[in-house]
C-alpha cells in the first residue's frame, strides 16, 4: 500500500438536535495520521462528532475532509476506507463470530471468498478470537465482544479508524491489550479514539483535543500541553469543609478524595499561598485545567469565569 | 399502593404515546367505514335498520378482529417492555410484589385496551349521525344497543384478548409474544369458526371474539328481530362468554404462578458452561495477536463488487429469515394445512372432484386484490417479514457498523427485497408440493408439474414480489416498526376493498389486474395478455417504489422528515435519476397502452356508471313497455366464427308477426349489450329510424305502412363481435381458440322494451331517482305477470362456420356439415319451435351418444342424446346419458311429449359446476364433468340427479314459461327437482331417492331466519330449490304422486308454449287444489299459502312383547304448528292433521334405518299425546313424521330409539 496516509480536517462543524441540545458548536480540528485522542466528559458531543465522521449523521454546518474526500457529500468514498467501532453495538446472539465477521466482510466489499476467508482468519487471530470463532456471539463476554468489534472495524484495512469509547466496559488487563492493538494500527492510518478516560489518551495518543458542551476547549499534543502547565499546578490536602472557601479564592481545577481527606489541585502561575505544594503536572491536570477554563483558547476564559461560582 | 403507582405509570406512559392514539383513530375509522361502506348499502336494500343492535354488535365483532393486532401491541408493551429495554435490571430487584407488578401492568393494559375499543362505538355513532346516512335507515337512538355491545362483546373481548396476549408476552418475555397470542385468538375466532361450520353450537362456544355467534344472528334472525332485538348473552353466546372468562382468569393465574423476578437469561435455561473459560483463555494470552494480521486486501469498488455484495447479502438475509421459527418451519406447517384443506375444498355441493391440476390451481392461487385463505396468510407473513428485515439490524444494535460500511443503499434495500422474494418463492415451492401431494393422495389425476411451475412461478410469484416490495417500502418510509405493520395492513386493506370505495379502474389500485384463468379445456385463452400488460405496468411502479426505497433508506441517525428528504435529494443523482426516468417512461408507456385498451378501445364504465345507465334506460324507455309490438316467430342466422382471431360475424333475419289486434306503426329494437356491434338493421318494407340510442341499445323504426294484425315482416341485421385488446375486466372470453360459447340473450337484437335490463336493488333505484319497487315483482302485481324474458317460440335455423378442427353445437337437427376453404360449416334447424333462448358452441369436443325411443310412439319419435364433453373427461358422460334416457322416459309419460329430436349437454370451459337448460341444448360447466360421485361418502349420485333436473327444465321453463314475478322459481326449479325425484324413484332403485332427499335436506342445517313469505311467493334459493320440491313431494305422499303429476300435466296443457298469460305459482296452486281432496286442503294451504313450520318430537318410545310374538309399541308424541310471516312474527296454530307415524326394525349393517314395520298416517293434534300400536316383530326406532315430509328444521327429535319393556 504505497498510499500516503491521509489527514482528517474538520472545519466549523455545528450540530443541533431537534430537542435543542447543541451537540457540536463550531468545531474545527486538524487530525494528522496517527493516534488522535478526543477527550471529554459524558455528553460533551464526542459521539456526535464520531458519528458525523462515520457518515452516520449530517452536520448542520461545516465541512469534513478526509484527504480530499468530502465526508458529508462523498459518503460512499469515505465508507470504503472507514473502520468504525461504535460506543454501543449489538450482535446477533445466535450467529458465530466467524459467520458474522464474514458477513461484515461482504458489507465492506470483500466479496472474493478466498480473500474473505484469509482476512477474517487473520483478524480473528489478531483479536485473539480464533479459538472462539465457532462460538455463538450470545455467549461472548464484554471484552470478547469488544474485540470482535475491533475485528469488524479493521476489515478492509481502513485509512480512517473511529473508535468511540472503546475501553469503557473493559477490565484493566483487557484495556491494556486493546490499547496496544490500537497503537499498532495507528502507525498507518488516522485513528480517532474518543474517551472520557485520560489515561487512554496519555498512554497512546500523539495528538489530542478536549471537548466539552460541543466546543473544543483545547487542541494540543499531550506532552506539550503537560509541559505548558509546568509550574502552574499546585496541590493542597484539605478538609471538605474548607473547599468552598478555597474555590472562591483560587482556580481549583480538581478535588479528589485521598485517604478520607480532600486533595485539591489549583491552577496558578505563582505560588498560590500557604500550604500549597508544586505538582509535576500530568495530562489529567491538563484535562481539568481545560475543563475549568484555565487552559485553552484565551477567549473562553472570561466566559468560564462568569459561569464559575 | 404500589399496584396503583405501577398501574398509573404504565397507563400514563402508553397514553402519551402517539401510537396509542393512532390505534384509536384507526379503529374509529375502521368502524366508520364498515358502517358506511358495507352496512349502509345493505340497509338501503331494506335488509335492516342500519343502527339495529345486531348491526352494531356485528361491527364490533369485525373490529375486534382488527383490534387484536392493535391490542397485542399494548399488552405486549406492558408485559415485556422492561425486559426489552433492559430496565428489568432495575425493576426486578425493586421491592414490589409479583401481584403488584403483574397486576398493575395487566390492569393498565386492560384499561388501555378497554379505552381503545371505545373507538368502535364512537366510530359507529359518527357513521350513523355524521356521514349523511338517510334518516329513514335509522331507528331511534337506543343507548342500550351500544351499552350491550360494549358490555357483552367489546369489553369482554378486550379482557380475553389482553389476558392472553399479556400472558404470552410475560412468559415469553417478548413483546412479540403478544402477537403470537393475538394470532392464535384470531385464528380460533375466524378460521376455526370457518372450519367448524358443521360442528353445530361448538363453533359459537370456542370463538373468543363472539364473531360467529353475532354474524349468524345477522342471517338467522328474522327482519323484526334484526331491527329490535338486543344482542344479549344467551344460549351459546353466554356459554362462550363464560368459557372465555374462565379461560382468561385461568391463564392469568397460570402466568402469575409461572412468572418469577429473575433475569431472562438465567431464568430457565442455564448458560453454556464455556463462559468462564473464555475469559481465562483471554488472560492466559496476554497479547492480542500482533502486527502481521492487518490484511492488505483491497478490492476495487465497483458495480461488480456491489453485485457480489447483493448476492451474498441476499443469501445471508434469506437464510437468517428462513432458519427462524417464523421462517421455513412456519411456512411448511401452513403449506401442510393448505394440503389438508384442499380435500375439503375440492368439492362441489359436497361431491368430491377429481383433483385435476387446473382446479387445484384455482384454489391455491389468487391475486393480491382478491385474496383467498392461503394467499392472505403469505401476505400477512410478508408484512411481518418485511418489518423484521428492515428492523433487525437496528434492533440488534448492529446498524451503526453496517451503515458505516461501503455498501450502497440499493444493495441494502435490494438484498432485503430479494430475500423476501425468495421467501415467497419458497412458500410457492412448499405450496406446490402440498398441492401435488394432495392430488396424489386424493387419486384419479396426475399433477401437471409444468403447469404448476408456469402458474406458480410465472404468475403467482409476481403477485408476491409486488407485495414484498410494497411492504418493504412502507416499512422504510414509516420507519416505525409497528406503525409500519399497521400502515402496510391498511394499504393492503385498501387494495382489497378499493372497489367498495368506488375505485375500480385497475390502473389505480396497486398490483390490480384482470384475472388469468386456466382450464384444461380453454387453456389460458386470452386472459394472459391483459394480465401481463397490467402486471408489467405495476412492476414498473414497483421499480419506482424500489427507487423510493433506496432514496429513503434509513442509514444512520438522521430520522427527521426534513433530513430524510434532504438525504433523499442528495442520493437522487446520476444513475438513479436515469433509472427513475426510464421507469417513468415505462409507466407512462404501459399505462398509456392499457388506458388505450380499457378506455378507448373499450367503453370503461364502473359499477355506478353502469347502474346509472340502467336507470336512464328505464327512465327513457319504460313508457314503451306495453306498446304493441310484433312477435318474433322465426330466426335465420348465418354465423362465421373465427376462434383464433376471437371474432364472430352474424347475419340474421327475424320473422316478425303482428299477433296483436291492432296495427303496428313502429318497431322497437333492443340490441345486444355484450361487446357487440349491431349494424345494417333493415326491414323488408320501407321504414325509417326515429330514434337511435347506440349507448343504451334502443332503436325505434317507424314503418311507412303500419303492420296489420296477422301480417308479418322481416328484420335483417348484422352483429359483429371482435375482441380487440382488453377492458378493465380483462380480455373478452366469449370467442376463444377452444371453447367458444355465446347466447342470443347477450348478443342478438330483441323486440321491445326489456324489463330485465332494469336496476333491481332498492338502494340503487332510490339513488337514481327511480320509483320504488321490490327487486322481484309481487305475485299479485297483475301488470307484472304479463312479462317474461325471451318467451317467444321460434323456428330456428342457422349455418355456422368455424375452424376446421372444431365442432359447432346449436339447437335443432344438424342437417348437414361440410368443409370449404379450410373452414367447417354446420347447418342446424329446429324441427319444432323452441323458446327464444339459444347458445352457440364451438370447440374440440368428444361426443358420447345415446338414443331414447318413446315406447308409445313410432321410430320417428327417436331422440338422440348427445354429450359434448372435453376429451379426456370420460367419467360422467355415460352416466349422464343413462339419466337423460330415464328422465325422458318418465317425463313424457307423466307430463307430455318432448317436442324435439335431440337432447344435448354441451361443456363450457370454466371452473363452474353449474348447468343451464336452454331448449334442446343444456350448457354444463367444465367442472361438472369432474364430479366424482363414486367418492361421495353420502352414496349419492349428484350427476344423475342434476341431469334429471336439467332435463325436467325442458318441460318446466322451456315449455311452461313462468311470469317474471315472485314464485317463478317454484314453477321452474321446484318442479324440476320434484320431477327428478320421480325419475330416481322409478328408475334407480330404493336407495337413490332417499339419498337425494337427504342431500336436499342438508340445506335445512344452514342457519337462516324462519321469516319468509309463503312458498307461492318464493324468491330465494332455499325456497326455489329446496322447500318447493319438498312441499310438492310431501303433497305427493299425501294425495298420491299421480294426482300431483296430473295437476302438473293440466298446468302444462293450459299454458301451451308461446301462449299467454304466462303461468304463475297461483296457477300451479289452483291445479293442486283441484287435485287435492277436501280433507287435505288445509295441508295444501299450509305447505304453499302460508310459511308454516311444524315442531314434531317423539318424547318416549317403549315396546313390550305380546303373547304370540307381536310387539306393542307406546309412543309419546308432541306436536306444534306455527306460521311465521315475512317480518318474523310467529303465530301458533292449532294442529289437527294427518301425520305419518313409523316404526322400524333394527338397521342392517351399513344402513341408517331398518325396514319399516309400520307406517301409517295418524290424526295428530297440538300438544302431548300417546299412541299405542302393534307391530309384528321387534322394533328399534319409532317416530312422528319419520320421513320428514313436513317442514321441521329440528328433524333429529322426530324419531327415537324404542326401549323394550319386560
UniProtKB/TrEMBL annotation, chain A:
<feature type="domain" description="ABC transporter">
    <location>
        <begin position="8"/>
        <end position="238"/>
    </location>
</feature>
<comment type="similarity">
    <text>Belongs to the ABC transporter superfamily.</text>
</comment>
<keyword id="KW-0547">Nucleotide-binding</keyword>
<keyword id="KW-0067">ATP-binding</keyword>
<dbReference type="InterPro" id="IPR003439">
    <property type="entry name" value="ABC_transporter-like_ATP-bd"/>
</dbReference>
<protein>
    <submittedName>
        <fullName>ABC transporter ATP-binding protein</fullName>
    </submittedName>
</protein>
<dbReference type="InterPro" id="IPR027417">
    <property type="entry name" value="P-loop_NTPase"/>
</dbReference>
<dbReference type="InterPro" id="IPR003593">
    <property type="entry name" value="AAA+_ATPase"/>
</dbReference>
<keyword id="KW-0813">Transport</keyword>
<dbReference type="InterPro" id="IPR017871">
    <property type="entry name" value="ABC_transporter-like_CS"/>
</dbReference>
<dbReference type="GO" id="GO:0016887">
    <property type="term" value="F:ATP hydrolysis activity"/>
</dbReference>
<dbReference type="Pfam" id="PF00005">
    <property type="entry name" value="ABC_tran"/>
</dbReference>
<dbReference type="GO" id="GO:0005524">
    <property type="term" value="F:ATP binding"/>
</dbReference>
UniProtKB/TrEMBL annotation, chain B:
<protein>
    <submittedName>
        <fullName>ABC transporter permease</fullName>
    </submittedName>
</protein>
<feature type="transmembrane region" description="Helical">
    <location>
        <begin position="417"/>
        <end position="437"/>
    </location>
</feature>
<keyword id="KW-1133">Transmembrane helix</keyword>
<feature type="transmembrane region" description="Helical">
    <location>
        <begin position="457"/>
        <end position="478"/>
    </location>
</feature>
<dbReference type="InterPro" id="IPR014782">
    <property type="entry name" value="Peptidase_M1_dom"/>
</dbReference>
<feature type="transmembrane region" description="Helical">
    <location>
        <begin position="176"/>
        <end position="196"/>
    </location>
</feature>
<feature type="transmembrane region" description="Helical">
    <location>
        <begin position="575"/>
        <end position="596"/>
    </location>
</feature>
<dbReference type="Pfam" id="PF01433">
    <property type="entry name" value="Peptidase_M1"/>
</dbReference>
<feature type="transmembrane region" description="Helical">
    <location>
        <begin position="144"/>
        <end position="164"/>
    </location>
</feature>
<feature type="transmembrane region" description="Helical">
    <location>
        <begin position="106"/>
        <end position="129"/>
    </location>
</feature>
<feature type="transmembrane region" description="Helical">
    <location>
        <begin position="536"/>
        <end position="554"/>
    </location>
</feature>
<feature type="transmembrane region" description="Helical">
    <location>
        <begin position="21"/>
        <end position="40"/>
    </location>
</feature>
<feature type="transmembrane region" description="Helical">
    <location>
        <begin position="373"/>
        <end position="391"/>
    </location>
</feature>
<dbReference type="GO" id="GO:0008270">
    <property type="term" value="F:zinc ion binding"/>
</dbReference>
<keyword id="KW-0472">Membrane</keyword>
<feature type="transmembrane region" description="Helical">
    <location>
        <begin position="485"/>
        <end position="503"/>
    </location>
</feature>
<feature type="transmembrane region" description="Helical">
    <location>
        <begin position="242"/>
        <end position="259"/>
    </location>
</feature>
<keyword id="KW-0812">Transmembrane</keyword>
<dbReference type="GO" id="GO:0008237">
    <property type="term" value="F:metallopeptidase activity"/>
</dbReference>
<dbReference type="InterPro" id="IPR027268">
    <property type="entry name" value="Peptidase_M4/M1_CTD_sf"/>
</dbReference>
<feature type="domain" description="Peptidase M1 membrane alanine aminopeptidase">
    <location>
        <begin position="884"/>
        <end position="1081"/>
    </location>
</feature>
<feature type="transmembrane region" description="Helical">
    <location>
        <begin position="326"/>
        <end position="346"/>
    </location>
</feature>
Amino acid at each position: 500500500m504505497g498510499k500516503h496516509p491521509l489527514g482528517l480536517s474538520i472545519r466549523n462543524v455545528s450540530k443541533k438536535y431537534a430537542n435543542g441540545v447543541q451537540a457540536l458548536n463550531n468545531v474545527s480540528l486538524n487530525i494528522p495520521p496517527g493516534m488522535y485522542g478526543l477527550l471529554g466528559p459524558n455528553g460533551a458531543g464526542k459521539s456526535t462528532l464520531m458519528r458525523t465522521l462515520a457518515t452516520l449523521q449530517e452536520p448542520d454546518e461545516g465541512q469534513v475532509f478526509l484527504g480530499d474526500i468530502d465526508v458529508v457529500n462523498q459518503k460512499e468514498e469515505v465508507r470504503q476506507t472507514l473502520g468504525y467501532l461504535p460506543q454501543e453495538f449489538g450482535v446477533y446472539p445466535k450467529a458465530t463470530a466467524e459467520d458474522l465477521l464474514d458477513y461484515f466482510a461482504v458489507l465492506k466489499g470483500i466479496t472474493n471468498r478466498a480473500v474473505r476467508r484469509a482476512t477474517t482468519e487473520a483478524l480473528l487471530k489478531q483479536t485473539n478470537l480464533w479459538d472462539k470463532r465457532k462460538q455463538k456471539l450470545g455467549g461472548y463476554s464484554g471484552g470478547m465482544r469488544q474485540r470482535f468489534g475491533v475485528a469488524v472495524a479493521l476489515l478492509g484495512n481502513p485509512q480512517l479508524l473511529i473508535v468511540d469509547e472503546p475501553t469503557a466496559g473493559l477490565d484493566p488487563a483487557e484495556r491494556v491489550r486493546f490499547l496496544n492493538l490500537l497503537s499498532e494500527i495507528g502507525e498507518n492510518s488516522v485513528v480517532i479514539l474518543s474517551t472520557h478516560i485520560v489515561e487512554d489518551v496519555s498512554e497512546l495518543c500523539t495528538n489530542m483535543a478536549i471537548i466539552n458542551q460541543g466546543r473544543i476547549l483545547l487542541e494540543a499534543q499531550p506532552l506539550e500541553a503537560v509541559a505548558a502547565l509546568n509550574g502552574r499546578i499546585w496541590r493542597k490536602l484539605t478538609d471538605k469543609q474548607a473547599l468552598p472557601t478555597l474555590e472562591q479564592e483560587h482556580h481549583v481545577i480538581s478535588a479528589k478524595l485521598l485517604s478520607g481527606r480532600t486533595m485539591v489541585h489549583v491552577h496558578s502561575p505563582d505560588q498560590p499561598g500557604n500550604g500549597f505544594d508544586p505538582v509535576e503536572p500530568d495530562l489529567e491536570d491538563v484535562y481539568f485545567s481545560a475543563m475549568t477554563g484555565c487552559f485553552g483558547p484565551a477567549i473562553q476564559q472570561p466566559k468560564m469565569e462568569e459561569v464559575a461560582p | 399502593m404500589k399496584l396503583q403507582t405501577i398501574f398509573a405509570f404504565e397507563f400514563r406512559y402508553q397514553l402519551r404515546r402517539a401510537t396509542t392514539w393512532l390505534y384509536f383513530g384507526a379503529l374509529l375509522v375502521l368502524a366508520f367505514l364498515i358502517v358506511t361502506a358495507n352496512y349502509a348499502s345493505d340497509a338501503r336494500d331494506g335488509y335492516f335498520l342500519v343502527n339495529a343492535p345486531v348491526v352494531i354488535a356485528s361491527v364490533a365483532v369485525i373490529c375486534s378482529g382488527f383490534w387484536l393486532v392493535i391490542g397485542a401491541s399494548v399488552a405486549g408493551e406492558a408485559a415485556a417492555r422492561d425486559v426489552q429495554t433492559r430496565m428489568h435490571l432495575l425493576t426486578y430487584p425493586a421491592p414490589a410484589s409479583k401481584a403488584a407488578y403483574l397486576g398493575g401492568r395487566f390492569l393498565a393494559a386492560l384499561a388501555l385496551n378497554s379505552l381503545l375499543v371505545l373507538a368502535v362505538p364512537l366510530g359507529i355513532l359518527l357513521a350513523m349521525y355524521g356521514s349523511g346516512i338517510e334518516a329513514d335507515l335509522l331507528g331511534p337512538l337506543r343507548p342500550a344497543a351500544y351499552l350491550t355491545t360494549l358490555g357483552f362483546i367489546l369489553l369482554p373481548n378486550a379482557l380475553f384478548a389482553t389476558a392472553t396476549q399479556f400472558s404470552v408476552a410475560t412468559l415469553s418475555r417478548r413483546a412479540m409474544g403478544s402477537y403470537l397470542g393475538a394470532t392464535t385468538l384470531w385464528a380460533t375466532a375466524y378460521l376455526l369458526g370457518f372450519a367448524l361450520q358443521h360442528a353445530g353450537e361448538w363453533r359459537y362456544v370456542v370463538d373468543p371474539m363472539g364473531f360467529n355467534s353475532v354474524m349468524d344472528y345477522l342471517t338467522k334472525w328474522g327482519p323484526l328481530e334484526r331491527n329490535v332485538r338486543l344482542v344479549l348473552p344467551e344460549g351459546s353466546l353466554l356459554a362462550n362468554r363464560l368459557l372465555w372468562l374462565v379461560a382468561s382468569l385461568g391463564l392469568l393465574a397460570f402466568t402469575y404462578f409461572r412468572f418469577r423476578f429473575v433475569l431472562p437469561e438465567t431464568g430457565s435455561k442455564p448458560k453454556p458452561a464455556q463462559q468462564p473459560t473464555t475469559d481465562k483463555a483471554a488472560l492466559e494470552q496476554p497479547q492480542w495477536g500482533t502486527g502481521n494480521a492487518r490484511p492488505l486486501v483491497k478490492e476495487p469498488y465497483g458495480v461488480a463488487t456491489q453485485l457480489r455484495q447483493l448476492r451474498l447479502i441476499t443469501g445471508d438475509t434469506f437464510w437468517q429469515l428462513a432458519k427462524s421459527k417464523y421462517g421455513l418451519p412456519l411456512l411448511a406447517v401452513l403449506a401442510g394445512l393448505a394440503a389438508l384443506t384442499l380435500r375439503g375444498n375440492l368439492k362441489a355441493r359436497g361431491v368430491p372432484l377429481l383433483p385435476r391440476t387446473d382446479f387445484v390451481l384455482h384454489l391455491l392461487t389468487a391475486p393480491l386484490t382478491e385474496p383467498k385463505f392461503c394467499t392472505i396468510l403469505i401476505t400477512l407473513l410478508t408484512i411481518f417479514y418485511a418489518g423484521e428485515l428492515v428492523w433487525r439490524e437496528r434492533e440488534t444494535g448492529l446498524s451503526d457498523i453496517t451503515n458505516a460500511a461501503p455498501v450502497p443503499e440499493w444493495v441494502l434495500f435490494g438484498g432485503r427485497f430479494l430475500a423476501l422474494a425468495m421467501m415467497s418463492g419458497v412458500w410457492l415451492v412448499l405450496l406446490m408440493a402440498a398441492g401435488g401431494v394432495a392430488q396424489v393422495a386424493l387419486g384419479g389425476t396426475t399433477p401437471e408439474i409444468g403447469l404448476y411451475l408456469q402458474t406458480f412461478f410465472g404468475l403467482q410469484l409476481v403477485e408476491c414480489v409486488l407485495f414484498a416490495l410494497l411492504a418493504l417500502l412502507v416499512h422504510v418510509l414509516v420507519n416505525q416498526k409497528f406503525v409500519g405493520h399497521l400502515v402496510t395492513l391498511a394499504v393492503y386493506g385498501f387494495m382489497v376493498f378499493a372497489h367498495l370505495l368506488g375505485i375500480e379502474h385497475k390502473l389505480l389500485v396497486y398490483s390490480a389486474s384482470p384475472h388469468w384463468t386456466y382450464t384444461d379445456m380453454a387453456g389460458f385463452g386470452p386472459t394472459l395478455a391483459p394480465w401481463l400488460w397490467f402486471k408489467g405496468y405495476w412492476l414498473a411502479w414497483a421499480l419506482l417504489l424500489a427507487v423510493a426505497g433506496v432514496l429513503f433508506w434509513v442509514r444512520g441517525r438522521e430520522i427527521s422528515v426534513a433530513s430524510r428528504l434532504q438525504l433523499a435529494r442528495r442520493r437522487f443523482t446520476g444513475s438513479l435519476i436515469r433509472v427513475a426516468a426510464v421507469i417513468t417512461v415505462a409507466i407512462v408507456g404501459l399505462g398509456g397502452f392499457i388506458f388505450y385498451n380499457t378506455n378507448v378501445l373499450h367503453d370503461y364504465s364502473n359499477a355506478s356508471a353502469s347502474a346509472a345507465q340502467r336507470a336512464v334506460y328505464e327512465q327513457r324507455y319504460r313508457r314503451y313497455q306495453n306498446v304493441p309490438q310484433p312477435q318474433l316467430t322465426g330466426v335465420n342466422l348465418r354465423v362465421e366464427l373465427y376462434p383464433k382471431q376471437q371474432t364472430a360475424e352474424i347475419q340474421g333475419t327475424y320473422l316478425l308477426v303482428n299477433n296483436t289486434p291492432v296495427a303496428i306503426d313502429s318497431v322497437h329494437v333492443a340490441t345486444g349489450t355484450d361487446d357487440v356491434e349491431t349494424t345494417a338493421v333493415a326491414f323488408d318494407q320501407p321504414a325509417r329510424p326515429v330514434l337511435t340510442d347506440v349507448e343504451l341499445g334502443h332503436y325505434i323504426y317507424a314503418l311507412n305502412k303500419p303492420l296489420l294484425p296477422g301480417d308479418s315482416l322481416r328484420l335483417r341485421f348484422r352483429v359483429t363481435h371482435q375482441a380487440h385488446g382488453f377492458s378493465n375486466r380483462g380480455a373478452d372470453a366469449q370467442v376463444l381458440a377452444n371453447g367458444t360459447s355465446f347466447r342470443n340473450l347477450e348478443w342478438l337484437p330483441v323486440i321491445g322494451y326489456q324489463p330485465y335490463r332494469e336496476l333491481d336493488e332498492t338502494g340503487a333505484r332510490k339513488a337514481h331517482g327511480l320509483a320504488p319497487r321490490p327487486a322481484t315483482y309481487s305475485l299479485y302485481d297483475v301488470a307484472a305477470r304479463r312479462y317474461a324474458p325471451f318467451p317467444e317460440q321460434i323456428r330456428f335455423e342457422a349455418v355456422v362456420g368455424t375452424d376446421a378442427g372444431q365442432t359447432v353445437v346449436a339447437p335443432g337437427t344438424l342437417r348437414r356439415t361440410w368443409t370449404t376453404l379450410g373452414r367447417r360449416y354446420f347447418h342446424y334447424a329446429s324441427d319444432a319451435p323452441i323458446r327464444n333462448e339459444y347458445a352457440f358452441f364451438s370447440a374440440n369436443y368428444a361426443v358420447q351418444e345415446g338414443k331414447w325411443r318413446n315406447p308409445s310412439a313410432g321410430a320417428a319419435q327417436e331422440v338422440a342424446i348427445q354429450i359434448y364433453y372435453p376429451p379426456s373427461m370420460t367419467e360422467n358422460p355415460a352416466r349422464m346419458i343413462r339419466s337423460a334416457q330415464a328422465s325422458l322416459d318418465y317425463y313424457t309419460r307423466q307430463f307430455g311429449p318432448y317436442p324435439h329430436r335431440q337432447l344435448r349437454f354441451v361443456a363450457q370451459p370454466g371452473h363452474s359446476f353449474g348447468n343451464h337448460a336452454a331448449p334442446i341444448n343444456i350448457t354444463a360447466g367444465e367442472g361438472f364433468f369432474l364430479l366424482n360421485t363414486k367418492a361421495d361418502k353420502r352414496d349419492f349420485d349428484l350427476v344423475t340427479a342434476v341431469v334429471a333436473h336439467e332435463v325436467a327444465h325442458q318441460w318446466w321453463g322451456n315449455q311452461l314459461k313462468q311470469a317474471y314475478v315472485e314464485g317463478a322459481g317454484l314453477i321452474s326449479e321446484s318442479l324440476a327437482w320434484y320431477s327428478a325425484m320421480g325419475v330416481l324413484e322409478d328408475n334407480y332403485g330404493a336407495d337413490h331417492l332417499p339419498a337425494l332427499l337427504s342431500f336436499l335436506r342438508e340445506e335445512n342445517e344452514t342457519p337462516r331466519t324462519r321469516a319468509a313469505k309463503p312458498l307461492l311467493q318464493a324468491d330465494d334459493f332455499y325456497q326455489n330449490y329446496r322447500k318447493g320440491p319438498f312441499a310438492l313431494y310431501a303433497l305427493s305422499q299425501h294425495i298420491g304422486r299421480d294426482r300431483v303429476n296430473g295437476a302438473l300435466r293440466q298446468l302444462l296443457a293450459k299454458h301451451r308454449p308461446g301462449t299467454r298469460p304466462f303461468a304463475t305459482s297461483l296457477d300451479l296452486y289452483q291445479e293442486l287444489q283441484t287435485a287435492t281432496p277436501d280433507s287435505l286442503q288445509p295441508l295444501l294451504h299450509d305447505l304453499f299459502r302460508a310459511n308454516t313450520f311444524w315442531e314434531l318430537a317423539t318424547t318416549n318410545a317403549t315396546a313390550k312383547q305380546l303373547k304370540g310374538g307381536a310387539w306393542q309399541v307406546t309412543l309419546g308424541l308432541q306436536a306444534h304448528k306455527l306460521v311465521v310471516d315475512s317480518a318474523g312474527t310467529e303465530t301458533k296454530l292449532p294442529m289437527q292433521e294427518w301425520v305419518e307415524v313409523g316404526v322400524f326394525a333394527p338397521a342392517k349393517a351399513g344402513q341408517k334405518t331398518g325396514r319399516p314395520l309400520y307406517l301409517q298416517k295418524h290424526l295428530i293434534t297440538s300438544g302431548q299425546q300417546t299412541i299405542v300400536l302393534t307391530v309384528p316383530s321387534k322394533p328399534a326406532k319409532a317416530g312422528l313424521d319419520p320421513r320428514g315430509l313436513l317442514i321441521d328444521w329440528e328433524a333429529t327429535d322426530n324419531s327415537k330409539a324404542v326401549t323394550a319393556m319386560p
